[in-house]
Amino acid sequence: MLDLVLSIFCSSLIFVIFKLYTRFKVQTLYAIIINYITACTVGFFLSDVTVSLFEIPSKKWFYGTLFLGLLFIIIFNLMARTSQILGVSVASVATKMSLTIPVLLGVIIYGEELGPMKVLGILLALAAVYFTSVKKGSMTFNRRSLYLPVLVFLGSGIIDASIQYAEQNLVPAEEFPIFSSTVFASAALCGLLFILIRSRQTPITIRSRSILGGIALGVPNFFSIYFLLRALQNETLNSASVFTINNVAIVMFSTLLGILLFKEIISTKNWFGIMMAILSILLVAVF
Known about the structure:
mainly alpha; 11 helices
């Protein structure tokens, strides 16, 4: 359970750092790439397994990390696009409601059982994510842009489901740091290729604050994935419970951090969502 709590804390910290990027005028794209390089370095540094860089391509999970790294970059850009066109709340709802994909796959593929109370908890979790995230007037948007949150929803769900599959079938526990590092290295490589291609039109100019912002983001980013992988090994909670508690608690904790650190205004609907989130976590965890 401690691993799950630490994953929730690190994931919530990521949203706080993103919020600070605007205040300190950090170049988000460059900071994201530096963040992936930092996360990759942290993983290799903390690994207890001595692995040569030339050995990694022979690992059975290697090609999966290339796929995940590409997804990380694509989904991040889709989330940014969704936030710009449709609003931050729409992007947040689309991202966190994706928990249904790994939950359903856990039942269909791995034969995990969901009792009535856990089903109720998951349904409450979906409602909680909506009520916690939505702001007044945030759900009025052009229908032609509906493909954006749909792609964010599907992409985020595929990422969670892929991590779940890798943990259960491909990655030994002692190789979690190396696996996570390789995913981040793949994402960094995709990002570097993107800015190199774009540099033909837009020169590359990185400010020092963007480098610092990327390093500050990379550490919690690595541990959010690392502790999630460890939490999925919990014998008490199945993957449906882990993903439900993880996603709902991140929304709830991030909301509370927004109130405490940035004086964000929380509506009655938001508070109702927080209460539903607490109830859903209790139902999923206890039953």
